[in-house]
Structures are given as C-alpha cells and as structure tokens.
Design brief:
This protein is α/β, with parallel strands linked by helices and 205 residues long. The chain is 37% helix and 20% strand. The protein has two domains: 40 residues, no CATH class; 146 residues, 3-Layer(aba) Sandwich (Glutaredoxin). The chain contains six helices and nine strands. The strands form three sheets. A five-stranded mixed sheet has the order 5-4-3-8-9. A two-stranded antiparallel ribbon has the order 1-2. Helix 1 packs across helix 2. The longest helix is centred in the middle third of the chain and has 19 residues.
C-alpha cells in the first residue's frame, strides 16, 4: 500500500516537472524527497518569491522591440507589475491607473515596467490605445513569469486554467525583492503602489 502511494507521488512529479523550471536541476532522490517536491509544487507552480530574495535576472523586448535587462537597471528601484493579458478589461483598468499616477510615481525615482505574456506587437497596440507612458515587456514564452513564480492555476468562467496571477514586485537598487503585492485588484492598485513608495521614501529619509 505504501509502495503504491509512493509510486503515484513519483509519477505525479514526472508529469508536473515542466512546471518546476525555476529548479531545473532538482531530481527526486528518494521517497521522502519526492514527496516533499510534490507537496511544494502541486497546485502552486513555481516557488513563490519572498521579500529579500534576489530578483531573477532577465532580458526582454519592450513594445518597440528594444531589449531591457534587469541588470541594466541596478541602482534604481523598479516597480514590475505582471498582468495576464494586454488589452483585456482588468488589465486595461490597472494600466490606466498606472498611467494616471505615472507623474507622481516618477517623482519617487522608481522605474515602472509592465509585463505580460504578450508579443511586442500586442504590447505596442495596448500602449498606443491607452496612451501608456511606461515600457511594456513582452514575456510571450512566460519564462520570466515562471521565474518570478506568478504562474498559477486560476478559475476562469468555471474552468481551471494555468496563467499569470496579477502580481506587482518592488525591486530595490541592489536587485532584491523589497515588497510584493499579491492577488492584485486592478482598480486602485496604482494608488496603492504609490502610497507604498511614498511611505518607503519617508522611512528611508
């Protein structure tokens, strides 16, 4: 009975190994190791980022096809907001919020970047339609979303799907995660981020 249960766990691990890209070298080395890996990943996707973790480095094209590398922004605070899809209702509300607060966000000295599993062409269309003054990164292969642990199982119209969970990261000048906004509500989120940035600046003064 116990052996059968272990075999089922190991089979599940093999079936879900594609979701474990953040730890590509992990190989179960026994029943206990396999069980631990299964419990960590089943239903949650990648290991979630935590405050003070080093942000995964990446290089992506923006809406104009220009490459933006996280390493190239060292020394600056970055607000990186993940949204599920360009030009969809919720993402439009969220992006408009950042557009309308952008000048105030800029005054805090941070770099604002949007990112979604879209192509540069789709991001360009979204940016132009909504007059967005900040770069939109194209993560069409979802590699950066996976690295940041924002690929989640979601319920869409009664169906379970695997997609980007709306999440915003504040990355400090040294490249470490400074703050994480999870389960983001599009309406009012930009103001929430702005208030955090103001409070953080006061605390550092």
């Amino acid at each position: 009975m116990k052996a059968n249960a272990i075999n089922r766990v190991e089979a599940a691990i093999r079936q879900n190994v594609a979701r474990c890209k953040i730890l590509p070298k992990v190989e179960p080395q026994g029943p206990l190791t396999g069980l631990a890996v299964f419990l960590i990943f089943d239903g949650f996707g990648e290991i979630p980022m935590k405050v003070n973790d080093k942000a995964p480095d990446f290089t992506l094209q923006d809406e104009n096809g220009k490459e933006i590398a996280l390493k190239g922004l060292r020394g600056k605070t970055i607000v990186l907001f993940f949204y599920p899809r360009a030009s969809t209702p919720g993402c439009t509300v969220e992006a408009r919020g950042f557009r309308d607060t952008y000048s105030k966000i800029q005054k805090t000295g941070v770099v604002l970047l949007g990112i979604s599993p879209d192509t540069p062409k789709a991001q360009k269309k979204f940016q132009e339609k909504e007059n967005l003054p900040f770069p939109l990164l194209a993560d069409a292969e979802k590699k950066v979303a996976e690295a940041f642990g924002v690929m989640k199982e979601k319920n869409m119209y009664g169906k379970k799907v695997w997609g980007v969970a709306r999440t915003t990261f504040v990355i400090g000048p040294e490249g470490k995660i400074q703050h994480i906004f999870e389960k983001v509500t599009p309406d009012g989120h930009a103001e929430e981020v702005l208030e955090y940035l103001k409070a953080s600046a006061k605390g550092a003064a």
